Amino acid sequence: MMETNENYVNEDVKKTPALRKKKGGAWKVIVSVVLIIGVLGSTAVSTFNLVTLKSYIAEREKEENPETTEDYVKIAESYEIKPTTAISDAYKSGDTSELTDKEKETLDMAKKALEEMKIKDDMSDYEKEKAVYEWMTSSLQQDRGALTVIPSTQEDCDNPYGVLKYHNAVCVGYATTFRMFMQMMDIECMVEHNTECYHSWDIVKLDDDWYITDIYSDAGLTNYAHFNMTDAIWGQEQNWDHDFFPAANSLKYNVAYQNKKTLDDVYDLPKALREAMDDKLGCVMFAFKKDIKEEDAQIASGIASSIDNILMSGSYKDMPYALGSYNWVKDPETDEYLFNISIPSYNTVGIDGQNLTDKQLEKIEKAVQKAFSGLEPMEGYNNGMSIDGMGDVIVDDNYSENGSGTTIEVGE
Amino acid sequence: MKRKISILLLVFALLVCGCGSKTEKTVSMYDLRTAMEAADSSLPEMLNASDNDKEAEDLFTNISDLDYSKVDSYFVSYSKEGKADEIAVIAVRDPADVDAAKKSLEAHKEDRYQLLNQYEPEEVKRIEDGIVFSSGQYAVLIICDEKDSVRKAFEDAIK
């Protein structure tokens, strides 16, 4: 019997499910492989992205919170703190063969400066540090070009070469030069900077204790206002990484502490402060016979604040523009509370000619006063003070304890 | 067909609007600076920089982080002694960028505050009292005693 199409067809039909099964299975394999590749690939990409993202975040965090270092920090985005141990090591060893010409010149100038300071081997570390502080604050001037909108500082104002050659420095220049001098004399010293990277100063080790000194702030004054401070005192004005830099907690070599005055109680502060200002002191510290309670501390702060307001309300000749910082510290020897006040600068009439001697300045002052005495103040002004807006101010002519003239009391 | 023509007309109209913000001619920065400085007689000795200077783009970075290609012209007048007094004007090419210019001057004002807070604390109140504003394609910073007079001088000059 001949095979009919029907039979043939039936055979095909019989075969198709198997074929279909075979073909359907192949597709499943392909799809499975593609899916597996996709999952693996996606996982790999995600992992890569995660690692990259973490790395990116870490980099950004590092940029925003860089690890603190002493050197190679840029202050005010322009001035870099750099080490000078090559120079101090060469000074101590006598071997200058590794120094650059600039470093050799710096060393020559530094040696000359140490001679001018009259540093002797038998001086204590404190005496040596004080001699360097006094020389730097009286011989060098602040480069105010760092404060202009478009900085115009002199070259090398941020390192000892420029500081010693041109006698012109920004804070980094003062700090690195002071540190170099300390290291030349084997006195441990670091350059600190604030967390905002806008200012730098020194921390120096004397007799196993650390002290903070900011030469820049006392430049031209030599009033010890920022000499051998503690963390508590300097912390009123600055923030820095306390985990990285050593703690400064000793008052032993702080000038205000060495000269502290003892008062009966906090209400004696105004008179004592006035005397300190008449003597043009840069920092003062007061102990009290009476036990200091919280209430006394608040009264003292209120007194300081009130004096601050009076000073800032007008520019009084030979008086401070304002008080600096004031705070309570503990006497390490007696454990009693001391009131510390810094008086950073005074409103002295500036005279051009920083190289004039005191005698010459005094002579100038006398001649000018003689020629310009008896001037009549303009309407609305009285003895250099504006009356406008100060209707409550009365002048007391009876103040005469040390003959310094009139004092001002705020009327009711 | 009508639909296609309408779409073409619409696209053309949008293109024309997109090109419509043409920058107006800015005033001379020299004239602006001298007029504004003259409005405050208590200004200390001032230095200045502008787009006319040799290193204008570099100097500009001292007052703003705005992309210099967006700047039509600028000037900054500042105290020689590092005091707070400062007057700065940035004219942008495209008025759409004036907000960015204003923000950059605000950031600069904050930088000045931070710097002088460290070294000249008696100056910081003057920076706090300073003003930053924009007018048309100008962004302006004024820090001085007579800031209202200086602002008026600016507004009169750009009329």
Helix fraction of chain A, binned, reads: 40-55%
Enumerate how many helices of chain B there are, as a single number: 6
Query: Which consecutive residue ranges of chain B, at least 5 long each, have pLDDT under 50?
Result: 15-22
Q: Helices and strands of chain A, in N-to-C order?
A: HEEHHHEHEHEEEHHHEHEHEEHEEEE
Question: Radius of gyration of chain A, Cα only, in angstroms?
Answer: 36 Å
Averaged pLDDT of chain B, please? Answer: 88
Strand content bin of chain A: 5-15%
Our measurement of the CA-to-CA distance between the termini of chain A, rounded to an integer number of angstroms, reads: 137 Å
Topology order of chain B in helix (H) and strand (E) letters: HHEHEEHHEEH
State the shape of chain A: extended
Kindly report the average pLDDT value of chain A: 81
Are there runs of chain A of 5+ residues with pLDDT below 50, and where? 1-15, 381-412
Query: What percentage of amino acids of chain B are in beta strands?
Result: 15-25%
Task: Please report the total strand number of chain B as a whole number.
Answer: 5
Going across the biggest sheet of chain A, name each strand in turn: 8-9-11-10
Indicate the overall shape of chain B: elongated
Number of strands of chain A: 15
| Greatest interface (CB-CB under 8 A), with counts per chain | A-B, 17 and 22 residues
Please summarize the sheet with the most strands of chain B. Answer: 5 strands, antiparallel
Overview of the structural elements:
In chain A, 43% of the residues lie in helices and 14% in strands. Chain A contains twelve helices and 15 strands. In chain A, the strands form six sheets. In chain A, strands 8-9-11-10 form a four-stranded mixed sheet. In chain A, helix 2 (85-93) runs parallel beside helix 6 (171-184) and helix 3 crosses helix 4 (125-139). The longest helix of chain B has 22 residues, at 98-119. In chain B, helix 2 runs antiparallel to helix 6. The chains are: A alpha+beta (412), B alpha+beta (159). The A-B interface holds A 76, 144-152, 171, 194, 196, 198-199, 321-322 and B 47, 49, 59, 62-63, 76, 78-83, 86, 112, 114-120, 122.
